[in-house]
Design goal:
This protein has a 10-stranded mixed beta sheet with strand order 2-1-3-12-11-4-5-10-8-9, with helices on both faces. Helix 9 runs antiparallel to helix 10. It contains 11 helices and 12 strands. It has 2 domains: about 200 residues, Isopropylmalate Dehydrogenase (3-Layer(aba) Sandwich), CATH 3.40.718; about 120 residues, Rossmann fold (3-Layer(aba) Sandwich), CATH 3.40.50. By secondary structure, it is of the alpha/beta class. Helix content is about 40%, strand content about 20%. It binds 3-isopropylmalic acid (IPM) and manganese (II) ion.
Length: about 350
């Protein structure tokens, strides 16, 4: 019997629906070629839906999402909705409730894509950031007093639990072991200033490291990591870090790999349901124009297939994307691709179907 997976689809806002449609073309081409079936259920969640109905993310929707094999998300964010409402009410709520404690973000410069880094090529930029995705400054701990007065006090605490930190570090070691032959894991922290939080991270890291003698370990402060990512990106294989630092360094990563148009990410619960999204957001100014690059969403589909256990189909998506980037597309930036969003999606799907580039 053909294997079937249930995929919950949240197209969301802005260019989300456009890129999700192309992601689905690639997923369908890959599943057809590799002999399994994907069944999609769409969910109307996002800024548009919130504006129309006042509803953000009801518990019964989370309940059904939690039963899917994976979630495929376009983008959440609306120019008319106050910052924080949708981010916290949808994106972070899903990450937290579904305990997607890893945010996996590959930073890979493909051949044919230009990087702003002088003298760096595809062989120099190929690493993955494992970002803790359920704690840290994102936990929402803190509060404010006397808001709006000259005596205002605002506190935003970073929550780091031994359990939360250790499971993230363990995931990073396991991932590093499987990824390739380099086997180097770098902890990104700030042990010289954040002496409570990163003391815990460092001890957990060093303790877990004793179980992975085959993996070389390294440590760098987050500010230094920003420097090295620009100057010597070839030093990195896997970087593990907390939620806030991971958020920041992965935007830097997206830029050195060629831009938001190709930056993919996965919110992963290794024992539950994971959610995959292009990391670029809803890009309101490009919405509806057919100019947005769908590759970030398509590569998120690759991560989805890897995570649900279809590595060959995942590899087929990456091969097709590689070919398009090397041979076809002019530029990865929105509007400069030489193709519309859906033409590019069609081309990639055709390559996947034909096995081109494999
Ligand atoms: C990301 C985004 C989110 C984050 C925002 C939209 C809440 O920037 O996925 O990196 O900070 O995690
Ligand atoms: Mn971010």
């Amino acid at each position: 019997m053909t294997k079937k997976y249930q995929i919950a689809v949240v197209p969301g806002d802005g260019t989300g629906p456009e890129v999700v449609a192309e992601g689905i073309k690639a997923l369908d081409a890959a599943s057809a070629r590799h002999g399994f079936e994907l069944q999609y259920t769409p969910y109307a969640i996002g800024g548009e839906h919130y504006k129309k109905t006042g509803e953000i993310l009801p518990d019964h929707v989370i309940e059904t999402l939690s039963k899917a094999d994976a979630i495929f998300l376009g983008a959440i964010g609306h120019p008319d909705v106050k910052p924080g409402i949708l981010e916290k009410g949808i994106l972070l709520k899903l990450r937290f409730t579904l305990d997607q404690y890893i945010n996996l973000r590959p930073v890979k410069l493909y051949e044919g894509v230009s990087t702003p880094l002088k003298n760096k090529t595809a062989k120099d930029i190929d690493f993955v950031v494992v970002r803790e995705n359920s704690e840290g400054l994102y936990a929402g701990a803190g509060g404010s007093l006397k808001r709006g007065t000259p005596d205002e006090v605002a506190i935003q605490d970073s929550i780091n639990t031994r359990k939360g930190v250790e499971r993230c570090i363990r995931y990073a070691f396991e991932y590093c072991r499987k990824r390739n032959k380099r086997k180097k894991l770098t902890l990104c922290g700030k042990t010289n200033v954040l002496t409570y939080a990163f003391d815990l991270w460092e001890r957990a890291f060093n303790e877990v490291a004793t179980e992975y003698p085959d993996i070389e370990t390294d440590y760098a402060h987050v500010d230094a990591i920003c420097m090295w990512m620009i100057k010597n990106p070839e030093w990195f294989d896997v970087i593990v870090t907390d939620n806030m630092f991971g958020d920041i360094i992965t935007d830097l990563g997206a830029m050195i790999q060629g831009g938001m148009g190709i930056a993919a990410g996965g919110n992963i619960n290794p024992g539950g349901v994971s959610m995959f999204e292009p990391i670029g957001g809803s890009a309101p100014r490009y919405t509806g124009k057919g100019v947005i690059n769908p590759i970030a969403a398509i590569l998120s589909g690759q991560l989805l297939l890897e995570t649900i256990g279809e590595p060959d189909a995942a590899a087929a998506i990456e091969s097709a994307v590689k070919k398009v980037l090397r041979d076809d597309i002019k530029d990865v930036a929105a509007g400069k691709m030489g193709y519309t969003t859906s033409e590019l999606g069609d081309l990639i799907a055709t390559y996947i179907k034909d096995g081109t580039g494999v």
